[in-house]
Amino acid sequence: MKKRKFRDYxxxxxxxxxxxxMAIMYLNEALLDKDSRIFLLALKNIYEAQGExxxxxxxxxxxxxxxxxxxxxxxxxxxx
Length: 80
Fold this sequence. Notes:
By secondary structure, the protein is mainly α. The chain has one domain (10-79). Helices cover 65% and strands 0% of the residues. The protein has helices at residues 9-16, 20-32, 36-49, 54-60, 70-79. It is extended.
């Protein structure tokens, strides 16, 4: 009998978020939550699905310097 290979949930989820329609629906649902951290997590997952990291995106957009951490990115975004 052939052994079944299971995929990691996050791996499958990130693959699903590569579909622009799925990513838009996911982000819209995250916006409905009162906790802004949910939106940031959704944004992080979408960027990961697109092959980006939040830190790299923030550096490209001059939101942070190379020394700052992802936590500082989130704080800056939330304060705007």
